[in-house]
Amino acid sequence: MKIRIGILGYGNLGKGIECALKQNADMELVGVFTRRNPDKVTILSEGVKVYTVDELMDKKDDIDVLILCGGSATDLPKQTPEYAKYFNVVDSFDTHAKIPEHFAAVNKAALENNKVAMISCGWDPGMFSLNRLYGGAVLPQGSAYTFWGKGVSQGHSDAIRRIEGVANAIQYTIPLDKALEAVRSGSNPNFTAREKHLRECFVVAEDGADLARIEQEIKTMPNYFADYDTIVHFISEETLKKEHAGMAHGGFVIQSSKTGWNGENTAIIEYSLKLDSNPEFTSLVLVAYARAVYRMKQEGMSGCKTVFDVAPAYLSPMSGEELRAQLL
Amino acid sequence: MKIRIGILGYGNLGKGIECALKQNADMELVGVFTRRNPDKVTILSEGVKVYTVDELMDKKDDIDVLILCGGSATDLPKQTPEYAKYFNVVDSFDTHAKIPEHFAAVNKAALENNKVAMISCGWDPGMFSLNRLYGGAVLPQGSAYTFWGKGVSQGHSDAIRRIEGVANAIQYTIPLDKALEAVRSGSNPNFTAREKHLRECFVVAEDGADLARIEQEIKTMPNYFADYDTIVHFISEETLKKEHAGMAHGGFVIQSSKTGWNGENTAIIEYSLKLDSNPEFTSLVLVAYARAVYRMKQEGMSGCKTVFDVAPAYLSPMSGEELRAQLL
């Protein structure tokens, strides 16, 4: 009997979940649920139906784990606590500052209704968080470094698009090699934001817009760009669509520490991701944790969980014996 | 109240545990237990006593977790099941092929006596195993690669020392850059042993020994060297002591996979360690898991555990709230 998965929301992440399920033989897709007109939504999986979100409750008993593929800004803060009343759920809530309140709301709903709800799953938060925890636990006197990129930051791209005269924009976050090398050398450097990442922007301006003003507004924008070295290129919409539609991303989590009685030795732990498709990888993480959610529920657990709360063995379809014999 | 730790066995690993405890403020060392004459053993920690192994049982109620620092060949197969009857324990048993039987023996003792016993802890088995599991769970259709080194292999060094005419020897396992680059390119290569690692040997010959024969015996030794490209250098005992006494090690665990509906994209996860001191890092891992053992015991768990069974949050001294707010 396979683990029965439902997908709520069919954007890049929903599509990624379909691809991820294709790679996991112990799972099957029950249906895709959308706020759009289902007749207008074409999915990849043959023989699987698209339903309206209103039909979700009718399928309550057919779904073991519901994967919520909405956005963190407005969808998930409402959806996850609501659906955790009726389903075991997994989400990818990634607004780091609001995780504590999201956890509290989801935990209450899941505990009261005896469901398991996994939040903030993916790679950051997610696999990167795990590596920050493992790194800090093993090298407690060390320094932790997270680098992102090269990849598109949706938040920074949106910020540029809000500037007057900007028709479209894509912003790449780029980790600086010099900073990475300094960390890998074991020198435990302290960085300013500018020393860790570069920001490169590809901007489509509206006809007749003042390019110098736009560039100035980008480079001086507080929080987003002012503390970084920023490069601005003006390009056509056509070039943007052709050359900047990719969804590659990645990054590094590095823990560097001294070891030995007098700190005479150096130890460096480095974890990195190189991803052609950010949403496809995120989806694979969500699906692995959907397996964990299913198993934890089978064992009688309930409440809100994060990657920190899940024993690694729950993620693998292999048994404890197989894991010990083959992977330990 | 601190977590009270005992150390059994005072070689490189026992010394490493002392160093690791110095970096973890929530733990304290109760005593070092040795099979040698305690008067002849000088430890690093001030105000901590060295006891004979026979005194260990008298200290049963003073030790929360006993860290077993013996060898995997003969010490741990006896010690861990025996001491798991009376103590919560952590060991670094690393004979991969014998882990299932070690687990069974330790699990029986720990369950019958309501103790938590953590086996095969360190970096391989240990942190590398974790990364093989996480990598395989997240990218299930991918290929997994483990590279070791550059670092000394005790087993291979010992094998050379058993050859007639050899007075001393050190063998370095060296991962081949070309292989690492092929894996990082996402080409999912299949390697022979020879294509992944190089073996470099520094050998001290006895006076008048036949160097050509020794070199030939090394290079053709089944299992250990025959399947590898092997370089042999003959050096003096003095040079060996001066230039090859270091305990640096490290390695890489890489998972490479295709993602997307038709496998059109590539995802690479890479975890690596660069360690000036292998035993000091191993000890830091053992101590983090000693904290986990203590907490699991507090929560009423018992039995044999491996890194696969431990939810990451148990490793950190931070609370769940702190972890979610600061590391997720």
Task: Record the SSE blueprint.
2 copies of one chain form a homodimer.
Chain A: E1 3-8, H1 12-22, E2 27-34, E3 49-52, E4 65-68, H2 75-83, E5 88-90, H3 99-112, E6 116-118, H4 127-138, E7 143-148, E8 151-152, H5 154-161, E9 166-175, H6 177-184, H7 193-196, E10 197-205, H8 211-219, E11 229-234, H9 237-243, E12 249-259, E13 265-275, H10 278-298, E14 303-305, H11 320-326
Parallel strand pairs in A: 1-2, 1-4, 2-3, 4-5, 5-6, 6-14, 10-11
Antiparallel strand pairs in A: 7-12, 8-9, 9-10, 12-13
Helix pairs in contact in A: 1-10, 2-3
How would you portray this structure in words?
The structure is a homodimer of 328-residue chains. The first copy, chain A, has 328 residues and is α/β, with parallel strands linked by helices. Chain A is built from eleven helices and 14 strands. Strand 13 of chain A pairs antiparallel with strand 13 (265-275) of chain B, so a sheet runs across the interface.
Keywords:
alpha/beta; 4-stranded mixed sheet; 7-stranded parallel sheet; 328 residues; homodimer
Measured by DSSP, the beta-strand proportion of chain A falls in 25-35%
The overall pLDDT average of chain A reads 97
User: How many strands in all of chain A?
Assistant: 14
Oligomer: homodimer
Helical content band of chain A: 25-40%
The backbone outline of chain A, from C-alpha atoms, is globular
Largest chain interface and its two residue counts?
A-B, 66 and 66 residues
Taken in chain order, the helices and strands of chain A follow as EHEEEHEHEHEEHEHHEHEHEEHEH
The parts of chain A where pLDDT drops under 50 for at least 5 residues are none
User: Structural class, judged by helices and strands of chain A?
Assistant: alpha/beta
**Total helical elements of chain A:** 11
Give the termini separation of chain A: 28 Å
- Rounded Rg of chain A: 22 Å
